[in-house]
Write a structure and sequence with these properties.
Immunoglobulin-like, 166 residues, alpha+beta, five-stranded antiparallel sheet, three-stranded antiparallel sheet
């Protein structure tokens, strides 16, 4: 019993860092900021038309203001297009591989999302309004990045918006 009380007293004096060695990494991960830097839709026509696709290539910037290097196992996001009168869900995208963000550094994560002809039918008009008719809208990316520290994984939310005129 005496050893248990001594251990409890040491933990209280030393703080929770001993109990949760990943706490500093979680705190650093909360300081990450994400930016949707580039969105490039490209129409790939094919014959028959139901074989056509639209491919979105986009870059997500990940800024790390902390003093710790962070490793992400991957990320999962939803891309949507917001115009004055509607919100169109474009699709889900994931990055199964990982990436690193240096301390006080920035990483650029390239992503790609391909929509089939069937997927396009629901979002064709809003995409063409932006791409072909240059109407004002915003691309929005929401999701999570799965980070890892000392073999322990944890999620960090991703929220970023990019106006089509940027």
């Amino acid at each position: 019993m005496r050893h248990f009380l001594t251990l409890a007293g040491l933990l209280l004096m030393c703080g929770c860092g001993i109990v949760d060695p990943v706490a500093a990494y979680r705190e650093a991960a909360q300081q990450l900021h994400f930016s949707l830097e580039r969105v490039e839709p490209k129409v790939e026509l094919a014959f028959p038309l139901d074989q056509s696709r639209i491919r979105f290539r986009f870059d997500v910037g990940v800024g790390n203001d902390s003093n710790l290097r962070l490793h992400a196992r991957g990320l999962n996001c939803k891309l949507s297009l917001h115009s004055a009168d509607q919100v169109s869900s474009i699709g889900d995208v994931g990055l199964p591989g990982g990436f690193d963000v240096a301390a006080k550094g920035k990483a650029t994560v390239p992503l790609e999302l391909a929509l089939t002809y069937r997927d396009l039918q629901a979002v064709w008009r809003p995409i063409m309004d932006v791409v072909q008719h240059h109407k004002a809208a915003s691309w929005k990316l929401d999701g999570t990045a799965n980070l890892e520290a000392m073999g322990i994984g944890f999620d960090v939310p991703i929220h970023s918006t990019k106006n089509t005129n940027q």
